[in-house]
Amino acid sequence: MASKRCSKCQSGYGEVKACSKCKTVWYCSQECQKAHWGIHKPLCRPYSPNEVWGIKLLCDADKAASKDNSGPVPGRFVHELVNNDHPVFKRGELCPVTELFGIPLLIYSAAVERGIDMPGQGNQPAVYLRIEPDDGFAPPRWQMFLPGSCIVVRRDKKPLLKATLEAIYAFHSKILEGAGYPESDGWAPIREYMTPAAFQFFSRDYFEKQEEKKRVGFDPFFEPL
Asked: Which of 7, 91, 130, 207 is deepest in the core (most CB within 10 A)?
């Protein structure tokens, strides 16, 4: 068990025990398990090799109708159990920037795939996730058609948590802020910011800031996301 860490406090010392129901997370104490229950509860079910935890990224209309309408970003992300035969694994598109910094994500939009454009189906976070590394623009079809609600998963099929996806989206937003600075004035190409080291430092700081705001799910971590 030496390689396991407590899912709440990240302690790697002493004995950690698996959740008795799902056997997918570990805790060093009952106190940590209880404190982490609000985060783990939606994902607590026995592991199946045919299923992956991903995120349903809600479009504007679906977000407005959801129960969690607490903010522009948190209300958009919903945990979704995705079967291995879901189109995201067959026809989903790689988010290329995420591959450069070490957490390759796949995103699937039925609307973009079919060329459907309907009112209320805007989804800015989805478009931001799909930007290309060289110019910071999403492919034309992601700009021409409103993508609607999308499914996002990790290509390595590890569970994708809402806090992780939020940090990734925030990192992409930060990259886009600097996309307009001209290299002729001495600014580095934006692609040079898309490294594992840059994201690791950014995500650590982002989690710390969210924890200061008392947001659930943003506990400090000792290993990269």
From this structure: 130
